[in-house]
Amino acid sequence: MWKTIVRRFLIMIPQLFVLSLIIFMMAKFMPGDPFTGMITPETDPTRIEELREKHGLNDPWYEQYIRWIGNAAQGDFGMSYTFKRDVGALIGERAVNTFWLSLVSVIILYAIAIPLGVLAGRYHNSWLDRLIILYSFVSYAIPTFILALLFLFFFGYTLGWFPTSGSVDIKYDPGTFGYVMSKIYHMLLPAITYAVLATTTVIQYLRSEIIDAKTQDYVRTARSKGIPMKKVYSRHIFRNSLLPIAAFLGFTITGLLGGSIFIETIFGYPGMGQLFISSITSRDYSVITALVMLYGFLALLGSLLSDIIMSIVDPRIRIE
Amino acid sequence: MSFMQINDLKVHYPIRGGFFNRVIDHVYAVDGITMEIERGKAYGLVGESGCGKSTTGKSIIGLEKITSGTIVYEGENVTNRRRDRNSSYNRDIQMIFQDSHSSMNPRKRVQDILAEPIRNFLSLTPQEESKKISELLEIVGMPEDAKVKYPHEFSGGQKQRLGIARAIATNPKLIIADEPVSALDLSVQAQVLNFMKDIQNEYGLSYLFISHDLGVVKHMCDYINIMYKGRFVETGTKQEIYSDPQHIYTKRLLSAIPDVTPVGREERKRERIEVERNYQQEHAQYFDENGRVFDLVTLTDTHLVAASASGLQVKEGI
Amino acid sequence: MRTSEELLKITDLHTGFRIGDNYFDAVDGVSLTLRKNEILAIVGESGCGKSTLATSIIGLHDHNKTRVQGEILFKNKNLARMTEGDFNEIRGLEIGMIFQDPLSALNPLMRIGEQIEEGLIYHTDLTKNKRRERVLELLNQVGIPNAERVARQFPHQLSGGMRQRVIIAIAISCKPQIIIADEPTTALDVTIQAQILDLLIDLQKETGAGIILITHDLGVVAEVADRVAVMYAGQIIELAPVEELFANPKHPYTRSLFNSIPQMNSGNEKLNVIEGIVPSLMKLPRQGCRFAPRISWVPESAHEAEPTLHELSEGHFVRCSCHNHFYFKGEKEDIHHELYANK
């Protein structure tokens, strides 16, 4: 098993290399550069040109690329032009915010989706099932930003139950109990919004797996043993139906760091998604490239994690 | 005189492993098979699941890559020849599958399914093609209106007959039939088998009949090859195999077939246990230390058995 | 053996499937008795209702789509009237079931030992250690070497024959009085089939259980059965002790089936083909002789209007009077034989 994991990591290197090349080229092809936004009628064109020269933006693309990849390999993704900060530190800070937000989101998601999926599957074709299906279709059909805005308006402004932006109240000092509570408080509304939106897939998957499992031969064998139906469900049907959910777990875990662009932007939550969109609008190459590289790495890691998780939960799959 | 010679046919699959995914071993799916096929004769390939009988069939028709050995068809070496529409070999060798349902495109009508081999191998005008399809349907005893129907509209036996119609569309010389009746009920199976015999007599077809059902093979075949772990353990005429089996594996297989009479079943059970005991005891005379079947030794013109020298001596001693 | 104790008495059983708003009987008036110490084979082609009969006895059908009428008397209880909860007292404990496909019939995520143990948890008061002992004992009993190791393995790690032995171990774990085996050897190679059948016979002799063996294979029937019921289109059309049935088949359908078996023929002879096809459940004529359309050359007057089972000799029952007038095509007169005509 360890051999396979090491091999998979080694295979990632060329994959990430190709990805980095594509990202870098695409970033370069975007119109404008970090200094375009500084141009006003009063700007001296030679000053801009000097800045470009100083930051190496006039060098051939491959020289820029080699410089960038060389630094990146050492963990140095350069400075953010807009934030005037080290990219690594910037992303690290945002990643922590996003990670906690996503973790809370995923917990809420499974807390809602698994019971609903199980109920819909177990009592399928009943009114309860139809109700759950209706709910999951509605949540699937609503665009993210509309639901996010609705929740923000209703629970945030009208009812005033939740804060409407930020990740923590500034009046608390880091490390205190109030600070932690404030953080969680700020996360709740975006997390619930995310969870409500994401339930569809989990509910539908689980429901159809359970309906499918009910007709399986091994369930018939279990029934022929004369064990109570409740036990047939818990020991055979549910356990086996959770398999595809487990298969996604790897992606879900790595996805925790990715963040959601819509949710974070609308709720003004300083996470990775928000950073990503703001760095694109401000042409902050060093941040964009670093983020896309990170997302790429996370996707690869996610599939590896999923494989490892599958090999643990499904005895038929063994990684050599 | 045989029109096709299969010589020391081998199909090995690599097993990959280790850090660099290198080939560490092989699966010997087919491991040295030699046979000749004569016109108008039916050959049975019998063995238990995983013995390589289906792989043999597929490699002969070109659906599996042959690792070594040769297939000579009418004097021409056709080993690993790419399947294409210009080769007479591919026109003359056709295949029928166990599950004819999944071997037919569900979105095509019967006329299109039957037209495919005709278009590939025969250059006919649309009128001739249509006439040919009607003829084929008549041969397999299906009504004319079957042309415009889809595969799912037919029962299992009818679908199998459509599969046969498709196989005989190009007037082949050899049909490889891979478990053609295993999925069918007894009465339907009888219908398909009868029909296969009829067209064999009428067109002088040869069959390579792949099956695990020794009853069906006995009914259909002139020569029978018993296969185990990719090799022949015994080959011979139907009479030789059924009345005078030599290899311990053949004996074991034959003793396991249920007889369709309850008379003497206690005795058969004792016999079965006896054969099983012999099978364990005499293993060394029929399989080498790696469990590989020995090479075939000729007993009569047609009867060959795989045994070591000592195994043969024991038999002669009896 | 003839007079031995009756275990199960089925009277006029109808099991219907709901299609649209109507119920169509797949089992259509079956009456049968299973005795202690016997293997009763139920034989027929696909769609004849033999598997539905089995699932009706043990209540494993889909209750929403199925209607069971009639009486299945077991220990003075009518199984046809039982609820799912009541059935759990009987399934596994008093009636065990063996299924066809040993791979899909085992839970792929559960260890073999756990799967065998499950029934013991609910039907016995054995402690955990005792249950483990019993699991190993069962594995030994069904002829699995290395029981300790196998108990810890998962289904995919075993061969087909071994898996079928595990299924049998599950079925006999609580020493049931009745075992229902639905095509127990269909998915297996012949040598494995022979071993499994021998095992079934041995177990039956050991435990004295009554076995209902559902199969389409007349060879299997000949090897193991004591009595045989032949089913066609939801009805039993012939019922006889096994020697009697094979020596002296009466019903046209039974006779036709025997003549369709390849290995009984010596070689170039043609196999018998039954004209036409089995009618689908919805199109099945519910009156008259069900087999009449498939022996069209036998005059209509030969059939009974409402065919019933007649006892021809002791224990040998045949439905309808048409067997008295039946002959194979070409036997009596040279009728032009449209062999492949498809009606």
Report Rg of chain C.
Answer: 21 Å
Biggest β-sheet description of chain B: 8 strands, mixed
Radius of gyration based on Cα positions of chain B: 21 Å
Our estimate of the beta-strand percent of chain B is: 25-35%
Give a structural overview.
The complex is a heterotrimer of chains A (320), B (318) and C (343). Chain A has 320 residues and is an all-alpha fold. Chain A has a domain at 94-281: MetI-like (MetI-like fold, Orthogonal Bundle), CATH 1.10.3720. In chain A, 74% of the residues lie in helices and 0% in strands. Chain A contains 13 helices and no strands. Chain A has helices at 2-29, 45-54, 61-73, 87-122, 127-141, 144-158, 177-214, 217-224, 229-241, 243-258, 261-266, 272-281, 285-313. In chain A, helix 4 (87-122) packs antiparallel against helix 5, helix 4 (87-122) crosses helix 7 and helix 4 (87-122) packs antiparallel against helix 10. The N and C termini of chain A lie close together (5 Å). Chain B is of the alpha/beta class and 318 residues long. In chain B, 39% of the residues lie in helices and 25% in strands. In chain B, a hairpin with a 4-residue loop joins strand 1 and strand 2. Chain B starts with a strand and ends with a helix. The model of chain B has no long low-confidence stretch (mean pLDDT 86). Helix content of chain C is 29%, strand content 24%. In chain C, helix 3 runs parallel beside helix 6 and helix 4 packs across helix 6. Chain C has 343 residues and is α/β, with parallel strands linked by helices. At the B-C interface, helix 5, helix 6, helix 7, helix 9 and helix 10 of B face helix 7, helix 8, helix 9 and helix 10 of C.
